[in-house]
């Protein structure tokens, strides 16, 4: 199939016009007449008519039986695809220094679902947000990361969450192991409690050879989503959101990696307990 550059350029040309794009976004809300578009967007009737006519000619807009202007399926689909560009353009500085190319194609093509979010640029804000979302989880908490950075790495915090019924699932890199110092200073009863919950299936781990994204979320919100930087180190700063689309994207991505992860057969506290 030969790529039609002219058709693509025609579409991008129309979408690059501020006035016509404003009209398309307004029609995305529902049918409208020229007079209403002109009033709502504060355009002159002449300019509105000219731009709507142009959108009709290219096939993005049409007139319905009530003489209102509406988006065509082509126009509606084109606007849906703009969501990815909205996310990218509104976070230009971040996206200029971070990769998304390592994402599975079905997720990089859905970046528009991330458009409703807030940036976390301060490490203290990041840690506080991770702790808040973890503590407020009631049903489940998921995270995947190449290394732990969370303030809730306190074993007692984890045990408390498990005891109240929160399910925890974790994806880490294959070679991750808690330090001997960390295990040595953790009370044995906390390690035993965690291992008991692992045996019961309340806490579960999977491993991947390489993790190129950092993500923490509960059933309520995403506390952190971060991508790899130019040097391929996975950032500890990124995005947070309670938006359902953002949340679904992250949950779907976690599940994608979860089914591909290697299941743990021995819990990592066992060596510390054996020594005790």
Report what the structure shows.
- By secondary structure, this protein is of the alpha+beta class.
- The chain starts with a helix and ends with a helix.
- The protein has two domains: 79 residues, Winged helix-like DNA-binding domain superfamily/Winged helix DNA-binding domain (Arc Repressor Mutant, subunit A, Orthogonal Bundle), CATH 1.10.10; 176 residues, Endonuclease Chain A (Endonuclease, Chain A, 2-Layer Sandwich).
- The chain has 13 helices and ten strands.
- It is elongated and about 75 Å long.
- The longest helix has 18 residues.
- The chain has an eight-stranded mixed sheet with strand order 3-9-8-7-4-5-6-10, sandwiched between helices.
- Strand 7 and strand 8 form a beta hairpin.
- Helix 3 crosses helix 4 and helix 9 crosses helix 11.
Number of domains: 2
Beta-strand fraction estimate: 15-25%
Secondary structure category:
alpha+beta
Shape: elongated
User: How are helices and strands ordered from N to C?
Assistant: HHHHEEHHHEHEHEHHEEEEHEH
Average pLDDT works out at 90
Radius of gyration: 25 Å
Low-confidence blocks of residues: none
Instruction: Give the distance, in angstroms, between the N- and C-terminal Cα atoms.
Output: 67 Å
- Looking at the overall shape, the CATH architecture of the largest domain is 2-Layer Sandwich
What would the CATH topology of the largest domain be?
A: Endonuclease, Chain A
Question: Strand order, biggest sheet?
Answer: 3-9-8-7-4-5-6-10
Number of helices: 13
Give the fraction of residues assigned to helices: 40-55%
The CATH homologous superfamily of the largest domain is termed Endonuclease Chain A
Largest sheet: 8 strands, mixed
CATH class of the largest domain: Alpha Beta
Number of strands: 10
